[in-house]
Specification:
This protein is 27% helix and 26% strand. The longest helix is centred in the first third of the chain and has 48 residues. By secondary structure, it is an alpha+beta fold. The strands form four sheets. Strands 1-12-9-14-2 form a five-stranded antiparallel β-sheet, with helices on one face. A five-stranded antiparallel β-sheet has the order 4-7-13-10-11. Strands 3-5-6 form a three-stranded antiparallel β-sheet, covered by helices on one side. The protein contains five helices and 15 strands. It binds calcium ion (CA) (3 copies).
Length: 289
Amino acid sequence: MKQNVELLLNKAQSRLTNKLLTLALAASTGFTCLASAQPALAQSDDAKRFETPTVFQAAGPSAASIQSTVDQYRAALGAANNGNNPGQTSGHREINWDGGSPTNATTSLSGTPLTTFLNTRGANITTRGSGFVQAPPSGLADTFGNSSYATIFRVFSPLRLFSPIGSNVTEVGFSVPGSNGNTPATSTGFGVVFTDVDSPDGSRLRDRTGNRHASTLIEYYGTHGDLLFTSNAPASPGDGNLSFIGVVFGDARVARVRIIAGDVAPGPNDDRKDIVMMDDFLYGEPTPY
Ligand SMILES: [Ca+2]
Ligand SMILES: [Ca+2]
Ligand SMILES: [Ca+2]
C-alpha cells in the first residue's frame, strides 16, 4: 500500500515536473520572441530618428574658398537646379537673392512672411523680426544704419546678400513648388552661404567671459516639429570672409529649417557681437510626404 502511494506520488510529481518544464519552455520561447522583436523595432525607429546626415562645410577669404564644397553639395542634393519649374521630383532649388541679375544693386525690403519664392520654389520664409532685406553691402549699411556694413561683408553670388530685420533668426518651411504653399513638403537637406562668421574665434579663448559658442547655425526639423540635427557654420575670423554649411539626409525628412545668423539682430558693430549676413540658400527638391 505504501509502495502504491509512493508510486502514485512519483507519477504525480513527474507529471507536474513535465507540465512545469513545458510552461517554462513556452515562457522562455515567448520571452525570446519578445526580446528579439523589441530591439528590432527600437533599432528601426532610432535609425530613422537619429540618422546622421552627410555634412558639407567650408570657409575662407573668397568665393573660391568655398566654391568646390558648394558644388559638391549641389551634386549631393541632385545636380539639376530646378529654377522656377514646377513638377520636379529630383534635383534641387537655389535662392541667390540677386533678383535674376548679377548687376542688380537694388535694395529690396519686404515684410514677413517673404512669399517671393513660396509658389515658384516651395520656400515659405519667415522671421520673428519685422521683415527682410535683399541688398548689396552698401544697401545693408543704409538699411541697418551702420556704415561699416558696406565693407565687412562679401557676396558669394553678386551683388546682393540677405538678412532678416530686427532679428537674427530666419525660418524656411517647405511646400511643393507650384502648389502656392498648399501642399506641405519635405527636403533631403538645406545649406546656406554666410558672410563674416567670426565666432568661435581662437583669440577669445583668454577672454574670461568666454564667447566660444558658434554664432551661426542651422537647425533641421522633421514633420512633427522634431529637431533632427543642428549644424554649426564654420568660422573664418576677420572681415568679409565666406562660410558654407549644408547637410544631406538619406531621404526627404526635413520639413523646416531655422537659421541663426550671428549673435544678435543686425545693427551693432561687428566687434563684441558677431554680425553675420546670408547669401545663397540651396535645398533638395521639396516633395510631398
Ligand atoms: Ca547673392
Ligand atoms: Ca568680422
Ligand atoms: Ca561677423
